[in-house]
Amino acid sequence: MPEVRVISVTKKFGKIIAVDNASLYVHDREYFSLLGPSGCGKTTLLRLIAGLIEPDEGEIYIGDRLVNKVPPEDRGIGFVFQTFALFPHMNAWNNVTYGPRVKAWEEGKSERIGREMLEMVRLHERLDAFPHELSGGMMQRVALARALAAGAKLLLLDEPLGQLDAKVRNELRYELRKMVKALELTAIHVTHDQAEAMAISDRIAVMRKGKILQVGTPQELYMTPQHIFVANFIGESNFLEGYVSKSTEKELTIELRGGLLIRTLDKTHKEGEKVVIAIRPEILAIKKGKRGGVNSISGHVEGFRFEGTNVRYEIRLENGDLVVIVSPALMTEWLGIGEKVTVSFPIEKSFVFSYPERGLKRELALE
Ligand SMILES: Nc1ncnc2c1ncn2[C@@H]1O[C@H](COP(=O)(O)OP(=O)(O)OP(=O)(O)O)[C@@H](O)[C@H]1O
Ligand SMILES: [Mg+2]
Fold this sequence. Notes:
Elements: E1 4-13, E2 16-26, E3 31-35, H1 42-50, E4 57-62, E5 65-66, E6 77-80, H2 92-96, H3 98-102, H4 107-120, H5 136-149, E7 154-158, H6 166-182, E8 186-191, H7 194-200, E9 203-208, E10 211-216, H8 218-223, H9 228-233, E11 238-247, E12 251-256, E13 261-265, E14 274-279, E15 285-288, E16 296-306, E17 310-317, E18 322-328, E19 340-344, E20 351-354, H10 360-364
Parallel strand pairs: 3-8, 3-9, 6-7, 7-8
Antiparallel strand pairs: 1-2, 1-4, 4-5, 9-10, 11-12, 11-14, 12-13, 14-20, 15-19, 16-17, 16-19, 17-18
Helix pairs in contact: 4-5
The structure holds adenosine-5'-triphosphate and magnesium ion (MG).
Magnesium ion (MG) binds at residues 42-43, 82, 158.
């Protein structure tokens, strides 16, 4: 049963703490992603699980077995590297069927699996091609087919779709997930693309600077981010700074810059505390003119962009703060630059965080 447990694992390279006291529990047959910006330690954590490097501290279990000292080839894993590593002297077919042949599976079975995998990645017509004759995206697809064909129950995938163009990438996402589910595999998939992680995963660990910030289903991370960074990295958020001016049993009144008052459901912050309130661009409503009502703030249109499905407005609020609003294009009143508007949002749909010690900008920075 390839469940994976990572317990308080740290890995340093000289002064760099690439993985910092990380703990994870990946369930058997789960599709799990490690998501975070470039350099946050995703590849290092995956290489630790694979056994390509050893942790300085902590323990890694695959199933019930402590694998800290177990070499990669004895861990029962299939690995797709971020920089693809095909056998250069073998054509696509021989690359993909390498695992089954090494394991001396009966020929019919190796053939069938090889064919299925190459069809999945849509390269069944390029069986004879050598790596140098394939594009980067094609090589990556061969590497993926090879990892799947090798029959390991635990798949470790480092940006397996990274080299592909957007359309193929989107299609392969779903097929990859389907394949992992159909073959009852456990997959740990590294990506810096939040849309990919959301679409493909049962659960996601959001990483930053070697640390795991939050683990949850895509919905949990979107609906209840526990860190400012997560609220910004999973989906988008507007961040407004303020002070708690009143707190009751279940509700806070927050005073924003310029004395604007807004209300939010929250009971964890105290009167006088400096806070950041995060509001998703898609929950902000926008109306022409000046209007009253709870959490209604007036402002004017400073910019807009038609994005196809959505319109993205930039609104300068009366207190000088800037917010972004994203609304479905077909449902939106067209508003020009300078138009006076009122934006509003429901009290139950925003998130309140304590003001970060290091300041908001540094908290949101990708590195
Ligand atoms: N072998 C190594 N020697 C020295 N430093 C390393 C080594 N491998 C990784 N690092 C450093 O560890 C940190 C984490 O690197 P890692 O490759 O795990 O990031 P990542 O999240 O996979 O980034 P990316 O999305 O760019 O692939 C980086 O600062 C990197 O420079
Ligand atoms: Mg990487």
